[in-house]
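Re: [ENG-882] Designed sequences occasionally contain unexpected residues at chain ends

Forwarding the minimal case from QA. Structure tokens:
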């Protein structure tokens, strides 16, 4: 069926199933129509008008019983010194200690190293000699550069890579 567009007057074709809905020849004409409708009904802010929420936002309290009030602490706050076990990217578990507020966490191995040996030198990291990342005994910790640490663990990575290649070939 054919019909003229209500905006531009162009004749356009539509399916009989769209009989009541087909009014415009294109999305452009539909957009023009929607804009005109919004202006006519007052759904668009004209220049100089201020929305009602702008004047009331400062003192507006929609749910005062459940609002966060000044001086309150969230329920999930933990004290300094708390230890949490987290999973790292490789799946290893590491212990972290909260060292300061508001939310400053450090590896427990680094904290133990720094309390027994002083500050960790720049460019160094803490290595666990027994390869158990949760055993933070000072005798088990060793400061290494990243290159030394990679060399220490290189044999751990090679067998995994070789096993992966074998499973692909098989």
């Amino acid at each position: 069926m054919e019909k003229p567009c209500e905006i531009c007057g162009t004749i356009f074709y539509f399916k009989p199933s769209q009989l009541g809905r087909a009014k415009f020849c294109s999305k452009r004409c539909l957009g023009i129509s929607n804009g005109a409708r919004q202006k006519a009904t007052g759904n668009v802010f004209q220049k100089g008008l201020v929305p009602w929420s702008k004047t009331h936002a400062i003192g507006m309290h929609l749910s005062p019983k459940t609002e966060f009030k000044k001086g309150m602490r969230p329920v999930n706050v933990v004290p300094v010194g708390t230890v949490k076990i987290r999973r790292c990217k490789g799946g290893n578990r590491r212990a972290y200690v909260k060292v300061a507020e508001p939310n400053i966490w450090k590896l427990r191995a680094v904290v133990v190293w720094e309390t027994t040996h002083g500050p960790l030198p720049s460019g160094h990291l803490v290595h666990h000699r027994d390869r158990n990342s949760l055993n933070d005994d000072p005798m088990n910790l060793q400061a290494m550069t990243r290159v030394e640490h990679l060399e220490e663990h290189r044999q751990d990575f090679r067998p995994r890579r070789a096993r992966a290649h074998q499973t692909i070939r098989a």
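QA comment: On inspection the terminal residues look reasonable. Residues 2-43 form one domain. Proposing we downgrade this to a documentation issue.
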